[in-house]
Structures are given as C-alpha cells and as structure tokens.
Specification:
Mean pLDDT: 96
Number of strands: 5
Oligomer: single chain
Order of helices and strands: EHEEHHHEHHEHHHH
Shape: globular
Distance between the termini: 31 Å
Length: 189
C-alpha cells in the first residue's frame, strides 16, 4: 500500500466559453504530489506544470501561484500529465489524500471532460479528504486552512504556499503526524 498526497493549482476557463464552463469551470495548471510508503515515509515527489487548453492565466492566479502563460507555453496538456501522474503512482494499491475535496472534484470534472477512457470512480474509491479528517480529529467544525494546520503543529510552512508540490509536502507532514495518535495529541496541545 502506498499513500499519495496530491495538490493541484487551477485556472478558470475563459468566461466566453459558456458551454465548456458548465462542465469544466477550471483547468489544472500544476500537479504536485508526494508518495509515502506503507510506513508513511516519503519515498518520491512528482511535480508537473500543465498547459491549459481554454484560457490564459488570470491575473489573480498569476499573483497567487506565480505561474504565468510563459511558464506553461511549452508544457504538456492535462491528458498527458495526468497519464504521467498515474504512471508515477504505479500499480500498487494506493490511497490518495488532499487538503479538501476541491482537488478530487477538479480531477473528476477534468478527467470526465478530457479523458474518455479513465474510470473517474477510481478516484472516489481511493480518495481521502485529509482536511476533514484533521478537523474532525481536533474537533473543529470549520475548514482549517493548510497553512494554519501546519502552524497548529508548531511547524513553519515548507516552501511557497500555492505551489502544488509545497502544498503536497506540507499536507504529507500532517498526514505523517496523524499516524501517531499520542504524538499528534502532544503536538496539537
């Protein structure tokens, strides 16, 4: 069993493309992931930029992520990079984790829209919303932002927020801590 912690950065589909936006409001522009072994030790990382097909990068997304059209102009599209991601996961039994359900919702929408041959239900069967698990564990009714959860662990956020790989690395740190109940309770006090 392996554990995959994934984070996505997304860009909205151009508003003038109403028919597409009904099915696909956003497109993935970066995939970041961390692979953990069955002991929750990190064994690999995955990071790819993805060229969107239906829009230029918005000013807001440029400011938030630092990703520009120039960065993406020679990158592969989602179909290629999602296949690369699935190949990177491999054939071992895997559980996928993300900080909130926005990433699985995006993947389900984008895979359904762009990849006719991918079983979208595979995502549902293998996905865990770690934000919900964390919030439930500490007794929080709301949704704690990733950087606040890292701060609650008395850790500094590693890397730059809204970089898919950095977000995945920080989410993985939370997942690793959650495996040791006594250490988790001690840290969270």
């Amino acid at each position: 069993m392996i554990h995959i912690v994934i984070d996505l950065e997304m860009n909205p589909v151009r508003q003038s493309l109403r028919e597409i936006r009904r099915q696909l409001p956003d497109e993935v522009i970066e995939i970041g992931a961390v692979k953990l072994d069955d002991n929750f030790k990190q064994v690999d990382e995955f990071q790819r930029y993805v060229r969107p097909e239906y829009s230029k990068i918005t000013r807001h997304i440029k400011k938030l992520t630092g990703i520009t059209d120039e960065v993406l102009e020679d990158k592969n599209t989602f179909a290629v990079e999602f296949k690369n991601f699935m190949d990177w996961i491999g054939t071992d039994e895997a559980t996928l984790y993300s900080w909130s359900n926005s990433d699985i919702n995006q993947l389900k929408s984008e895979c359904a829209f762009k990849l006719d041959d991918f079983d979208v239900q595979w995502l549902e069967r293998h996905w865990i919303d770690l934000q919900k698990e964390f919030d439930d564990r500490i007794g929080l009714n709301g949704n704690l932002a990733l950087n606040h959860a890292v701060g609650a662990m008395n850790k500094n956020f590693k890397g730059t927020q809204h970089s898919a790989l950095a977000d995945a690395i920080n989410t993985a740190a939370i997942l690793m801590l959650m495996q040791d109940e006594a250490e988790f309770k001690r840290t969270m006090q």
